[in-house]
Amino acid sequence: MRRQINAIGGLGNVLRKQNQFFDAIDQYQAQLSMAQSIGDPRSSALALFHIAMCHGLQGDVKRAIAIGEKTLQQFERLDDPTHEVVREALEKWKQTV
User: Fold this and answer.
1) Which of 3, 27, 67, 69: disulfide with 12, CB 3.0–4.6 Å?
2) What is the pTM (predicted TM-score) of this model?
3) In the structure, how many helices (H) and strands (E) does the chain have?
4) What is the DSSP string of 18-38?
5) CA 31/CA 92 separation, integer angstroms
6) CA nearest to 11, candidates 29, 27, 26, 22
7) How confident is residue 97, by pLDDT bands cut at 50, 70 and 90?
8) What is the rounded CA–CA span in Å between residue 80 and residue 74?
9) What CATH number did the domain enclosing 92 receive?
10) Band of the pLDDT at 2, cuts 50, 70, 90?
11) CA distance 42 to 2
């Protein structure tokens, strides 16, 4: 199942880099659902962060911030260093509001 989760996230990354944000979000939401179903909090947080990134790239900064703040809390609870990347993204988004 973890391979599937990673593969779906990878497809989302490719789509995001091709500016296909709606399709990327669909993949990240599938990744999120699968990660939650097996109790994988890190993959869940990563999927949420990628969803936030897509919203930010589309110009929906308020939504990106709302999702990003939840993601930051999750990474901090996990004591995962990714929280620094999320914090930086949040700071950039907040500067544009």
Assistant:
1) 27
2) 0.95
3) 5, 0
4) TT-HHHHHHHHHHHHHHHHHT
5) 25
6) 27
7) confident
8) 9
9) 1.25.40.10
10) confident
11) 11
Per-residue DSSP letter, 7: H
Neighbour count for residue 43 (Cβ, 10 Å): 20
- Per the structure, the count of domains in the chain is 1
Summarize pLDDT for 9-38 with one digit per residue, the tens. 999 999 999 999 999 999 999 999 999 999
How many angstroms separate the CA atoms of 13 and 27, rounded? 9
User: Contact at 8 Å (CB) between 40 and 9?
Assistant: no
Q: Which two tokens stand for residue 91?
A: 């700071």
Q: Which domain holds residue 70?
A: 2-96
Distance between CA 76 and CA 62 in Å, rounded? 21
Integer Cα distance of 89 and 97 in angstroms: 13
Alpha carbons 1 and 34: distance in angstroms, whole number:
8
